[in-house]
Amino acid sequence: MSATCLFCQIASGDIPATVVAENNLCMAFRDIGPQAPTHILVIPRKHYQSLNEMGDPQLAAALFQMAREVANAENIDDTGYRVVINTGREGGQSVDHLHLHVLGGRAMKWPPG
Ligand code: AMP
């Protein structure tokens, strides 16, 4: 855990969030600035700055499994959704704790901006 990391503080419960799923490895909560009708972030409880630092296949599976479960619970799995991992400066990452965006409830465009 990083004491100064926003998502570590959400994971520990020190900063409130609307949590929609959690287990021993990861948790999911609603994005504070939703970019789609459904916009949920899935994070590992353990601090990894980005995907570059995370080499644990079991954790990777747990994160994608939770993304799938959240999409199902939000009823966007059949219509379709997007899972995004912004990584680093040019990838558009603004919070330095690995997170998956699960976005759905509207048609997505391609290419992303
Ligand atoms: P990224 O730009 O990929 O690093 O995504 C960071 C995301 O975190 C953005 O979509 C923000 O809206 C979201 N965010 C920032 N602060 C909070 C917070 N306190 N609770 C929930 N989501 C947040």
Keyword list:
five-stranded antiparallel beta sheet, binds adenosine monophosphate, 113 residues, globular
Give the DSSP E fraction (strand runs of 2 or more residues).
Answer: 15-25%
**Low-confidence runs of at least 5 consecutive residues:** none
Bound molecules: adenosine monophosphate
Oligomer: single chain
Helix content: 10-25%
| Rg | 13 Å
Summarize the structure.
With 113 residues, the protein is α+β, with helices and mostly antiparallel strands.
Please, could you describe this protein's structure?
A 5-stranded antiparallel beta sheet has the order 1-2-3-5-4, with helices on one face. With 113 residues, the chain is of the alpha+beta class. The N and C termini lie far apart (32 Å). The chain has helices spanning 6-12, 57-73, 88-91, and strands at residues 19-22, 26-30, 38-44, 81-84, 100-104. The protein is built from 3 helices and 5 strands. The chain is globular, with a radius of gyration of 13 Å. The model has no long low-confidence stretch (mean pLDDT 97). Bound molecules: adenosine monophosphate. Residues 6, 17, 31-33, 41, 86, 92-95 line the site of adenosine monophosphate.
List the helices and strands and how they pair.
Blueprint: H1 6-12, E1 19-22, E2 26-30, E3 38-44, H2 57-73, E4 81-84, H3 88-91, E5 100-104
Antiparallel strand pairs: 1-2, 2-3, 3-5, 4-5
Bound molecules: adenosine monophosphate.
